[in-house]
Amino acid sequence: RSSYLCCYFVLPCCFFDFHGKYSRRQSKKTQYREYLDFVAQVGFVCGFHVEEDCLRIPSTKRVCLIGKNRTYPPTECALIDKQITRYINNRQTCAVVTCDGRVGFNHKDHYDGVCKEAGSELPENETDTAGTIWMPGFQPREKVEQIRNCASLPRDFVDDVVLNVANLLLNATPQKSGSNMHGGNVNTWNQGESLSLKEVAEHLNKETLKRLKSECGGLQTLLKNNHQVFEVLNGRVHIRDWRKEKPSRKTKPEVKRRLSAEAFKTRLCWFFIHHPDGCSLPSESCPYAHGTEELR
Fold first, then answer.
1. Using CA atoms, how far apart are residues 3 and 8, in angstroms rounded to an integer?
2. Per-residue pLDDT at 184 exceeds 50
3. Average pLDDT over every residue of 248-255
4. Checking CA distances to 124, which of 12, 102, 221, 239 falls within 20 to 30 Å?
C-alpha cells in the first residue's frame, strides 16, 4: 500500500498473520508451504505478480517471494486499495473493549474470497477509512529506530558501572593473601562472590539505574556486553575466570586461524589494569593485551 511504484522482497520465516500467529487451515500441505502460499496470496491481493525463488543460504527456510510488477494499471489504485482494506479487515484480530473495561480480542473468520469480490462495494464506514486507517491499533515503527542495547551509552559511564560492579563482587569475599599485582598467581587469584542482578542493582545509585532502565535489558544487557569481565548465569553475576574458559574443539581453516591471530590482543586486559591480583592468565595465554606495548 506504500506506493504504486513500490516493489518488495520477503523471506518468510516465523509463522505470523497480521495480528498474531498464523493458523493452519490445510493439513495436506506442510506448515511452511502453507505459510508461503499465504504470503504469496497477500502479494497477489495487493496487486502484484508474485514470483518465487530459492536463496543459496545455509537455512532450511530459504524460499523468498518477490513482487516487481503490478497486475493493474495506476488508474485502478483506489479499487485495489478497497480490496486490500477488505482483505486486512477480514484477517485481523480486532481489539474490543469488554463490559468490565478490559481490552479483549474478537477473532474474525479468515477471508479467502477477496479476489472474487474485488469489485464489490465496501460498507460506508470501511469506505471512509480505507485511505487513512489500515488496521485499528496498529503502531508502525519510527523511521529511525533508537539503539537501546546499551551500545550507545557513553564509554565513561559503562566503564564506571563495570568497575563498580566488579569491586562489589570482589569485596563480597575477603581478599586472599599472597597475591601479587600482575603475576596472576593461580592459587591466590580472587574471583569474588556471585550476586543476583537484584542485589547488584541495590548497590547502584538511582541515577545509574534510571539511565539503564531506558535501555532494553538494562543492567543485565550492559554486563553481558562486557563479557571480558562478567559472566551472567541464571540471573546471577560472576567475575569471569579466564582459566576456566575451554578452547574451541573445532579445527579452524587456515584462513580463519590467520584472521584470529591478526585480531589477537586488540584490546587491553581489564583484569591486568583493574583487578587487585592482576590477570589470572600469563601474558602469552591471555587474549587481551597486558599493557599498551602488546596491542596490535
1. 11
2. no
3. 61
4. 102
Q: What is the mean pLDDT of residues 45-57?
A: 95
Which residues make Cβ contacts (< 8 Å) with residue 279, sequence separation at least 6? 182, 184, 242, 269, 271, 272, 286, 288, 290
Backbone angles phi, psi at 196, to 5 degrees: -70, 160
Tell me if 294 sits within 8 A of 283, measured CB to CB.
yes
Cβ distance 189 to 166 under 8 Å?
no
Contacts of 122 by beta carbon, 8 Å cutoff, 6+ apart: 82, 85, 86, 130
Parallel, antiparallel, or unpaired: how do β-strands 93-97 and 103-107 relate? antiparallel
The residue out of 78, 94, 110 marking a domain boundary is: 94
Asked whether the beta carbons of 226 and 161 are under 8 A apart, the reply is: no
Strand order in the sheet with 195-196: 195-196, 236-239, 230-233
- Cα angle 25, 28, 33 (rounded to 5 degrees) comes to 75
Contacts of 53 (CB under 8 A, 6+ apart): 63, 64, 66
Residue 280's domain spans which residues?
A: 155-170+191-294
Q: Rounded distance, CA 212 to CA 164, Å?
A: 14
**Residue 203, SS3?**
coil
Q: Which pTM does this prediction carry?
A: 0.51
Cell numbers found for residue 178 = 599472597
CA distance 219 to 151: 12
Statement to judge: residues 74 and 205 lie in one domain: no
